[in-house]
Amino acid sequence: MDRQEVHLTRKIEVSSAHSYTLDALSPAEREATFGKSAATHAHGHNYDIRVTVAGPIDENGDWVINIKEIDRIMREKIEEQLDHRHINIEVPKLRRRWPTLETLATFVWEEMAGSLEHVRLEEVQLFENPDFFAEYRGEGSMIYLTRVYRFSAAHRLHNPALSDEENRAVFGKCNNPHGHGHDYVLEVTLKGHPDPKTDCLIDIGLFDSLIQKEILQRFDHVHLNLDTEEFRNLNPSSENMVMTFWKILDRVFPESSLHRLRLWETSRSYFDYFGPGADSHPSSPARRNR
Length: 290
Fold this sequence. Notes:
Layout: E1 6-18, H1 27-34, E2 43-55, H2 67-82, E3 85-86, H3 87-90, H4 101-113, E4 120-129, E5 132-136, E6 143-155, H5 164-171, E7 180-192, H6 204-219, E8 222-223, H7 224-227, H8 238-250, E9 258-266, E10 269-273, E11 286-289
Parallel strand pairs: 1-3, 6-8
Antiparallel strand pairs: 1-2, 2-4, 4-5, 5-6, 6-7, 7-9, 9-10, 10-11
């Protein structure tokens, strides 16, 4: 990537209805795959759609692209097709496709890609709600799917290799012997190629049940130092937490599908982990943003 490039992201919101009634699956298969969504005539969402473009500043030294121009394209290509529409009925290109996030993110990319000049389409993000979104980057059928989960836990930052005085100096208030707590937010991102039969990367019910069993049941409403085996002898910093969660989840999700864990400790701090030996982030296996 050219170091002189700038990335610009614009977002729109569209209100759309859709249904899971294609005859490619039997009624029983539809219900097993899509749950309650397959049992209704239609339901809908306020979709948050974010389009990121990249490129150098133009020859006049003003901008990557005139915002009015990208707004026009997004309005013509995306908003006019999807907003206040029934996706399955009123969008010809989507009539024979399952209206999953995976499908819609790819659709937005395809509609935008041929309309941009002098900039490169970098990424499409499509949110069904703040806790469920997909990202598409033009990598064939590769999709990134994120679910967001919350749990509350107490911990004490204390390194047994240090003296009590050293621990107080290093960790300050976080070394309080009685502990303190956080409402943690965990973003789990999977990557892979959607099943062509369902246009789904993973069964969302399975996704949720794995997180419920492996993370929430074990770490919600506990004192990490005292109530969990994982942190009885390991300092429960957010760095250690996100790396420990990776080890747990990497064993239960399909091979190579786990892409990123992001752990929010507070609204000011989050920690990213892409797995051991992640080449795309060589500076630190656990990236922190405080």
